[in-house]
Write a structure and sequence with these properties.
- The structure holds 2 protein chains of 2 kinds.
- Chain A is mostly helical.
- Chain A contains 6 helices and no strands.
- In chain A, 77% of the residues lie in helices and 0% in strands.
- In chain A, helix 1 runs antiparallel to helix 6, helix 2 runs antiparallel to helix 3 and helix 3 runs antiparallel to helix 6.
- By secondary structure, chain B is mostly helical.
- Chain B is built from 1 helix and no strands.
- The N and C termini of chain B lie far apart (62 Å).
- The relative contact order of chain B is 0.07.
- Classes of the chains: A mainly alpha, B mainly alpha.
């Protein structure tokens, strides 16, 4: 079986119908367990107090904000190279999801930053690159709406996606590139190293991460099927006009 | 049952409130749109079959 079989809208829709009843409940279950565990059953941090509980929303949202754009980049490249409509529609479907995760990452970061850094916002490399990423998401969604021809819109948004991927990568590595901002580097994968994430927060965070990935997959499937149906609807309406 | 969030209660509760509200809006909107488009497409396909 080839991966390219899923470029067939019918095959994609059938597969989505089989996957959604598994992925959607997994997302709900993991998010419920992870967030309840994190909010109610983790201790306060010795420095951050109860604001450490924000990590269970902020980190998964920030990771998905970047990874959603990377997924859109891969789908856009598939469209540009192989002209598979489903991949262009999957990229279109993922954009609002990535935008919401970017908004959540920025909002929770601001709520955490005010008591911890003494400011809601700082022109720190990571924060700034995330704000630019949000603007790219808005521009990407607006471009899809602005161009009437779906294929032209897919071409233009594909190019925008390639350009925006620079900022998606910068958002991820800004702390390493410019070691001068307020935002700390990731500590999730630093088990055994200096200043790792405390084990009390590690597992609920992992459960939340699985939850947001499952939620992203479920929403992309659902929204891509919606886009495929909209394309079919447009074709039927165009045919009715000619008859 | 509610943990004592101390002086950071606003920051923590606002983070959870805003995030869960945004996620609920996204999920609700996606499901509503999925169902609405499905209904319109089924009606259009029925028209097509009737000729």
């Amino acid at each position: 079986m080839s991966l390219w079989e899923y470029a067939n809208p019918k095959k994609f829709s059938e597969t989505a119908a089989r996957l959604l009843p598994v992925v959607a409940p997994l997302a709900g279950l993991c998010l419920a367990i992870g967030l309840i565990w994190g909010f109610f059953f983790t201790p306060d941090d010795y420095k951050q107090g109860s604001t450490v509980k924000i990590i269970f929303l902020h980190v998964p949202a920030a990771m998905m904000a970047i990874n959603a754009w990377i997924m859109m980049l891969v789908a856009s490249l598939v469209w540009i190279v192989r002209r598979h409509h489903v991949s262009a529609l999957a990229a279109k479907a993922a954009a609002p999801i990535g935008m919401v995760f970017t908004l959540i990452a920025l909002a929770t970061g601001a709520f955490w930053g005010q008591p911890m850094w003494g400011t809601w916002w700082e022109w720190d490399p990571r924060l700034t690159s995330f704000l630019i990423l949000l603007l790219f998401y808005l521009g990407y969604i607006a471009l899809w709406q602005a161009v009437e021809s779906p294929d032209t819109a897919a071409d233009l948004t594909g190019v925008l996606c390639i350009v925006g991927s620079v900022f998606a990568v910068l958002s991820r590595y800004a702390v390493k590139f410019w070691n001068q901002g307020l935002h700390q580097d990731s500590t999730i994968m630093k088990v055994g190293e200096k200043d790792p994430l405390d084990p009390a927060y590690y597992w609920p965070l992992i459960v939340c991460l699985i939850g947001v990935v499952a939620l992203f997959v479920a929403l992309v499937l659902l929204r891509t099927v919606t886009e495929i149906r909209l394309r079919r609807l447009a074709a039927i309406e165009a045919r009715e006009k000619f008859e | 049952m509610m943990p004592d969030l101390g002086k950071y209660a606003f920051a923590v509760l606002a983070s959870y409130g805003v995030s869960l509200a945004l996620l609920a809006l996204l999920v609700g909107w996606s499901i509503w749109r999925y169902r609405a488009v499905k209904a319109v497409l089924e009606a259009a396909e029925a028209r097509l079959r009737k000729g």
